[in-house]
Amino acid sequence: MSEATMTADVKTQDGPLEFLVKGDHHPQNGTLLGFWLYLMSDCLIFACLFATYGVLARSYAGGPTGMEVFDLSLVAINTSMLLLSSITYGFAMLEMQANRLKGTLIWLAVTGLLGAGFLAVELYEFYHLIHIGATPQSSGFLTAFFALVGTHGLHVLFGIVWLVTLLFQLKKHGLIPANKRRVFCLSMFWHFLDVVWVGVFTYVYLMGVLP
Amino acid sequence: MSEHTHDHDHHEAEGPHVTLKEYVTGFVLAVILTVIPFWLVMGNVFESSTTTALIILAFMVVQIVVHMVYFLHMNFHSEGGWNMLALIFTLVLVFITLAGSLWVMISLNNNMMPGMM
Predict the structure, then answer these.
(1) pLDDT on residue A19
(2) N or C: which end of chain B has fewer CB within 10 A?
(3) Per-residue confidence (pLDDT) for residue A211, from 0 to 100
(4) Which of B18, B24, B82 lies closest to A33 in CB terms?
(5) Residues B20/B13/A175/A110 CA torsion (nearest 10 deg)
(6) What is the mean pLDDT of chain A?
């Protein structure tokens, strides 16, 4: 790899198009850095929601406790789906790096399906909670729980919308630099959601069922 | 020829070069770091809740670092170090938000207990 970079450098130095090439580089890096800054601001939103949950986690107001309402086997299914979707997105990135459009599309679609499965289980969980009377209105604990986990779920939903849009763009335009940049941005978004989920399943679910 | 160079340069600019080994290592580590806390809680391994809570929180921190390194490809020289600088700044704010809220509200709760009024 270092050899390839060296050759590229030599060619760039020899060629008369040096300024054009360099000028082309700048906005590309800018997009990735800018997107990272967006993720960091998103991280602050989740920090506030985590802080709210941390403060209200034991405010049951006579309603159900975490130990009574959380079903850890559902959480385990959800966690494994999100974790699997992280590595399938990694496979999509590898296929894209090798310039194979079909493989990229397939692995992105698998990732999207796993994300949809995650959302389906989460919606079932919410439906079940509301059905047994554990609604967001019933206690501070449940308000904070629905706000935190719901916001994460909304992020996954928008990630899936973005992913489907990207599938159509890839199908129409192929692996052009703009699309590669989009796939890379979505990969950061997707892995970031997995990082947030690690916090959610540990702090909310696992610590929530501890006596 | 020049077009090829151009393509290559674009590729370099797209972000870090990713490898299969990186993703598989990250995935295996993440699975291990997920299974252990679930086992600790579901199997009631420790008597004390506090011990379990502290251990699973430690696993959480390690797993977040694993995700950052192997999936998000964080290091000290991507984007000229600005990625890492933004991350460190955010982590400081996250720490202040979390630790500050919990500290203030818990001590408020303790001092406002019905028994004390």
Answers:
(1) 53
(2) C
(3) 81
(4) B82
(5) 40
(6) 88
Query: DSSP for A9-68?
Result: HHHHHHSTTHHHHHHHHHHHHHHHHHHHHHHHHHHHHHHHHHHHHHHHTT--TTS--HHH
* Paired tokens of B48: 């004390």
Largest CA distance in chain B: 82
Q: Which of A24, A38, A40, A74 is the best mutation test for B, with the most CBs of B within 10 A? A: A40
* pLDDT one-digit tens code per residue, A126-160: 999 999 999 999 999 999 999 999 999 999 999 99
Q: Which residue has the tokens 């674009």?
A: B10
Dihedral over Cα of A32, A181, A45, A118: its sign:
negative
Nearest to A97, CA basis, from B86, B30, B15, B90: B15
Question: Is A51 in Cβ contact with B72 (below 8 Å)?
Answer: no
Cα separation, A204 vs A38, whole angstroms: 25
Rounded to whole angstroms, how far apart are CA atoms B8 and A10? 13
Q: What distance in Å separates the CA atoms of residue B85 and residue B88, rounded to the nearest whole number?
A: 5
Taking only Cα atoms into account, the Rg of chain B, rounded to an integer number of angstroms, comes to 22
Would you say the ipTM is above 0.90? no
Question: pTM, whole model, 2 decimals?
Answer: 0.85
Q: Which helix (H) or strand (E) holds A125?
A: helix A101-131
How far is it, in rounded angstroms, from Cα A46 to Cα A134?
A: 23
Number of Cβ atoms within 10 Å of the Cβ of B41? 23
pLDDT in tens, chain B (117 residues): 344 444 444 444 457 788 999 999 999 999 999 999 999 999 988 989 999 999 999 999 999 999 999 999 888 877 778 889 999 999 999 999 999 999 999 888 888 866 654
Please tell me the distance from the alpha carbon of residue A117 to that of residue B8, in angstroms, as a whole number: 37
Instruction: Number of A to B CB contacts under 8 A, please give it.
Output: 147
Q: What is the nearest CA distance from B65 to chain A, expressed in angstroms?
A: 9
